[in-house]
Amino acid sequence: MRRITTTVVGLGMLLAIAGVTRAGQEEQFTPEFKEAHTSYDAKHTPRLSAPDSVKRGQWFEVTVTVGAGGEHPSLSEHHIRYIALYKDTAEIARVYLHPVFSAPRVTFTIALDEGGRLRALAEPTHSAAWEASKRISVAP
Predict the structure, then answer these.
(1) Is the confidence at residue 49, as pLDDT, over 90?
(2) What SS3 class is residue 137?
(3) How many CA atoms lie within 13 A of 57 on its CB side?
(4) Residue 33: is its pLDDT beyond 50?
(5) What is the pLDDT of residue 34?
(6) How confident is the model at residue 129 (pLDDT cuts 50, 70, 90)?
(7) pLDDT score at 35
(8) Residue 97 carries which DSSP code?
(9) Model pLDDT for residues 104-122, shown as the tens digit of each residue
(10) pLDDT in the model for residue 64
(11) Can you give the residue ranges of every domain in the chain?
(12) What is the CB neighbour count within 10 angstroms for residue 78?
């Protein structure tokens, strides 16, 4: 194991000497590196469709479509990388999309034990993620 650690450290030093840095690398990662947009944008804001109230433990559908004012394009140069669904701060599911072959629309089938806030995040290739949310109550 020590040899592997030395190799990794050696590779890191080699990249640093060669002038390869991680600056700008955050552009290719998810919102953990950036704050999600919560303002409205017709092209990027997710549209979250879910019931206002559900029964505890009962399966129901949540559909997320990117582009509250019309569907977001899915081009190789500009597309939605992923759509994620959260209940409050806990991630429930995430779907990665392929450019050209995947429409920016996903339906999740979930069940909840308690009410809270459903949050949909959609990350396009040219900016931080965009967020929409909806309160949902859960009846016993």
Answers:
(1) yes
(2) strand
(3) 1
(4) no
(5) 61
(6) confident
(7) 72
(8) -
(9) 899 999 999 999 999 999 9
(10) 95
(11) 29-139
(12) 13
Query: Using an 8 Å Cβ cutoff, are 88 and 115 in contact?
Result: no
Residue 87's nearest CA partner among 56, 51, 111, 104 is: 111
60-66 vs 46-49, strand pairing mode: antiparallel
Residue of 51, 54, 49, 82 whose CA lies nearest to 68: 49
Name the strand (E) or helix (H) holding 7: helix 2-17
Taking all residues of the chain, what is their mean pLDDT, rounded to a whole number? 78
CA distance linking residue 116 with residue 90, whole number of Å: 11
Tokens of 88: 């409050």
What superfamily would CATH give domain 29-139? Answer: SOR catalytic domain (2.60.40.730)
Pick from 92, 47, 93, 94: nearest CA to 72: 47
Contacts of 120 (CB under 8 A, 6+ apart): 46, 48, 62, 64, 83, 84, 85, 86, 131, 132, 133
Residue 79 CB coordination number (10 Å): 21
